[in-house]
């Protein structure tokens, strides 16, 4: 905790004009971080897209312009620093001056882009690993992901998560550069600081209209808004590049030890699914960092009836100030 307090104490060094001052790596921030050479190009691509006047989510555009973004990175498949990075971010997000900040975690680009399914397996494996080591003891009492009240959380902070990756060909709003990018958005980002109400429906409708022009595909049928009847957050984290409704159960389990309590048949199915995903990832991308792949089994997909979630908007970024109308 001392290191985390030090990061908060150094927060006055976060500069709007210097994006590298807002990099978090483990318990270090800004100048104390040794950023990899590949990060500059990945960040430049994201910034170029987000600052495009036609970019659908003007919330994200304003967040980038105002310096209300934190950044981090993962070299290869080395996730050792990611839990500490997310804890540092969570501690900062609980401070009033940073309650509107998101964090973008850049992953080192692969020699060749992976198949969409390989990115999907990698994404859910990362969320599972974070959850398994979550320092917040209340993580054990989270609702099931199939519950409308569920949202991913870490270190006591609920966060909407967006996975952007280069395998998106038609859904351009979810392709933000040469490598995978995970965007973690605390729930406080979606709440107006004055009215304490969620971002208005009109603002969300504006984002929807802009998405129709930016993407080459209509909005996904599983997109919704937290709190709406039938809405499930996890279905919006990683989308396909078509518009087929997601009918499976969430590939995320409450703590890995619950997966170990599954039946032998389920455990065997999980092991097989993870091996297949890992093999597809390696053969499809000629990965130079295959040794760093997670070894935990990927949770099995169990058929689940489709829900009647209502469409709302794509949320690649968000900004609480939009509810006041100052981002339009």
From TrEMBL:
Residues 293-317 have a biased composition (Basic and acidic residues). Residues 255-328 are annotated as: Disordered. InterPro entries: Uncharacterised_YqcI/YcgG. Pfam families: YqcI_YcgG. Residues 259-275 have a biased composition (Low complexity). This is YqcI/YcgG family protein. It comes from Paraburkholderia terricola.
